[in-house]
Amino acid sequence: MRLRAGGVLIILLVLLAALAPLVAPYGPNALLDLTTLRSAAPSVAHPFGTDPYSRDLLSRVLHGARVSLSIAALAMLLAVTVGLAVGMASGWAGGLLDTVLMRAVDTALAIPRLFVVLVVLALWEHVSLFTLALILGGTGWFGISRLVRAEVRTTRALPYVAAARASGASTLRILVRHVLPNITGPLIVAAAMGMGQVVLLEAGLSYLGIGVPQPTASWGSIVADGQAVLRSAPWVAGSAGCAIVITVLAFTLVGDGIRARLDPRGI
Amino acid sequence: MDSDLVRFVSRRLLEGTLVVLGVATLVFVLLHAAPGDPLTVLSEAPQISPAALERMRHSFGLDRPLPEQYVRYLGRLVHGDLGTSLTQHRPVTAALADAIPNTILLALAALLVDFGVGISVGIAQAQRAGGKRDHVLGVVTVVLYSTPVFALGLLLLGVFAETLGWFPLGGSVDPVRHGALSLAGRALDQLHHLVLPALTLGLAAAGYTARHQRSALLEVMGRDFLRAARARGLPERRLLFVHALRNALSPTITLAGLAFPVLLSGAVLVETVFGWPGMGRLAADAIGRRDYPIVTAAAILAAVMVVVGNLLADLAARIADPRLRSIH
């Protein structure tokens, strides 16, 4: 149930994001009419209303989906790749490499993630959307590498892995053919949950004005635009806020749903 | 005081020091991996001549080899010197000293809300797992878990401060009246300002805590000793509140240690929404002004807080669960 609901939502969101230029009634940054259409209430012509600069909110939210989802997807791809590589190396090699890598991961986990991102953003001045995704991904793999390492250590002790090694399989082959399939499930759960967290993090940075640069539509910056007119035009912050909640909810439901399937005993 | 406890604490303190050292090193690496050097920002200011910049580089030791700079950097950290703010023209420690108590106050109040609400909801769900109440609360917690903390803050701000006027619009104290109030009045004034930010930060985190508490309780409820207790005819209420809760509590206390980094990250956003003069808002503002010493110091101090928070949580877990005392 959860899996299906979340999956349908995600497919819908991805479709809307991909087709945003076709679906959106206006351009995301088009100032429609600065004299009469500032913070206009939702209507037939503007289903979500307009923002204080008279931009159509439906169009901005749709284009915001493109930005948020593609940043999150790229960041998660990077996080999963690095997490998988580090976790496998650490778990398979053991010994000194394992100790050093996992100590480093513990250290990184001790800083609140937002602060790591703040330090990087403070030092590098002009951050493109691509770099932002790299930063978010680069700070998102620590937990995944711990998870992968734990699974690799359990798997490598199993008899069938010893059998594969005895029959002459290379380390790489064992890792890819025998260990990887065992960790796919938990990895997908972590990636789904991680997608939601990256969407939240990017929205938070853009709300602070240090994520996606203005005037590019992003859900976080739309909420920031709406803060000044919170009472007179709650639909500005509200529309983007709901978009964020629905997206994160969809990924959380998928993560929960897959976890429930993997472990039928857990509820 | 047993020697076990002393050994446990000293070991954890040593580990914590290593973590903070690692964080400081990471910050150092990032500082020097960034394009230009820390004074590049100043070179954009026209009133500073290249010669003056060169002298500053020399006086800050930026022309020395990296390993030497690293050792000097650590030496300054050990002495509590976190550098000078580029925009406030005072030591970073002075700027942070004003902000840190506010952030700690906010984080602790939020932790109280987080655990008060999270644990109660988790218990309410586990009482009748699979029932209607469990489902409804399950939906509420997963939505809370998916809500961005700044949007929740704006929602509470819009409803309870702007529309109903029950709470102030922002800040940590009333700027006009606060100075004239009595000691108790000042405390009440601050508490009044604290309610909405703490609720925001706490509720946003409570979704996760409730989910965790529910599954921890259900896991314990399935164990043999509880089946035995049920077979002896103990009432369901006693099973849950006395037998299961005690056993499910220590993972939740450990969770408090893990909640700390999340709360500090959230504090950056909540402090911005409510104009709460804390460390997170200071750091977020400093980015716009390219005042990097404030940001790096805030990151290092955030790590220190996380380490201390984890240590306190582990100590509390040992008190709550005697079984942990024999394990190091």
Structure, described:
The complex is a heterodimer of chains A (267) and B (328). Chain A has 267 residues and is mainly alpha-helical. Helices cover 73% and strands 0% of the residues of chain A. Chain A has one domain (2-18, 50-262): MetI-like (MetI-like fold), CATH 1.10.3720. Chain A has helices spanning 2-18, 20-23, 57-93, 95-110, 113-123, 129-138, 142-156, 159-166, 171-208, 219-227, 234-262. In chain A, α3 (57-93) runs parallel beside α11 (234-262) and α7 (142-156) runs antiparallel to α9. The radius of gyration of chain A is 22 Å and the shape is elongated. Chain A starts with a helix and ends in a 5-residue tail after the last helix. Chain B has 328 residues and is mostly helical. Chain B has twelve helices and no strands. Chain B has helices at residues 3-33, 40-43, 50-59, 66-78, 92-127, 132-146, 149-163, 183-221, 224-231, 236-274, 279-288, 292-320. In chain B, α5 (92-127) packs antiparallel against α10 (236-274), α5 packs parallel to α12 (292-320) and α7 crosses α8 (183-221). The chains are: A mainly alpha (267), B mainly alpha (328). At the A-B interface, α4, α5, α9, α10 and α11 of A face α1, α6, α7, α10 and α11 of B.
Describe the main β-sheet of chain A briefly: none
State the shape of chain B: globular
Chain-averaged pLDDT of chain A: 86
The structure class of chain B reads mainly alpha
CATH superfamily of chain B: MetI-like
Oligomeric nature of the chains: heterodimer
Number of helices of chain B: 12
Q: Assign the CATH class of chain A.
A: Mainly Alpha
Rg of chain B, rounded, reads 24 Å
Q: Which series of helices and strands of chain B comes N to C?
A: HHHHHHHHHHHH
**What name does CATH use for the topology of chain A?**
MetI-like fold
Number of domains of chain A: 1
Structural class assignment of chain A: mainly alpha
Q: Would you identify the CATH H-level superfamily of chain A?
A: MetI-like
CATH architecture of chain A: Orthogonal Bundle
**Helix content bin of chain B:** over 70%
